[in-house]
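Support request, please re-run this one:
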Amino acid sequence: MPDPSPVFGREATSRPSRASLRTAVVWDVLKDALDRRVEATGKDSLDVLDTGGGSGNFAVPVARLGHRVTVVDPSPNALFALERRAAEAGVADLVTGVQGDISGLFDVVGRESYDAVLCHGVLEYVDDPAEGVRNAVAALRPGGSLSLLAAGLGGAVLARALAGHFTEARHALSDPAGRWGAGDPVPRRFTAEQLAELADGAGLDVGAVHGVRVFADLVPGVLVDTEPGAAEALLKLEAAAAELPSFHAVATQLHVLGEKRG
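Re-run finished. Output below.
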């Protein structure tokens, strides 16, 4: 199978970009999960669904692993960009874009049709996160893997406090949706416990929870860009902290990986 895009995690062969610093942990976990599904199913190629996958930040690298990827997204512009990106990567035959959203998921895809489902940056914006997770799990075949990524409450509180917006930080702590005020662009944030509870309630056995962008959003960009070896060292630090529960509370994003109960 061809290798994925070299901007992600362990596949990196050059200095990590700022974008890869923010996605490397998720990519490494996801790639391992896909490899395990290949081994468990005996298939050479998996059927993967990326809900809200946009222009293919994850879908195209997954396709470069040799898997068939269906991207469901409400934006025609994002799907057009996905088509172009897949063609440029040489995987147009493995990537299919479909207009839709997770609330009406089964209007455009079938139930129990996928070996893995990605639900990244979706739950923050849907009216009913529990329904969103249930639909993602219902799209999985028994034993299939769900990769769930959502905004973390603690990271937002920490970021507002470090920026000197202490009242907004305190507001986010007490707000049911984890928002710091009317100007907050993110409609909803989660704790690791909340995400794990949603996953469990939808019929998923949670295998791992990771903190994502624990440090990457807090470190000054000029330091990473100019200090020799800083980007590589930060990448290793993110990976080391990701699985430690003590850092989940301050992560910008939280990643839950689980398998559908058979």
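The chain is about 40% helix and 20% strand. Residues 1-13 have pLDDT under 50 and may be disordered.
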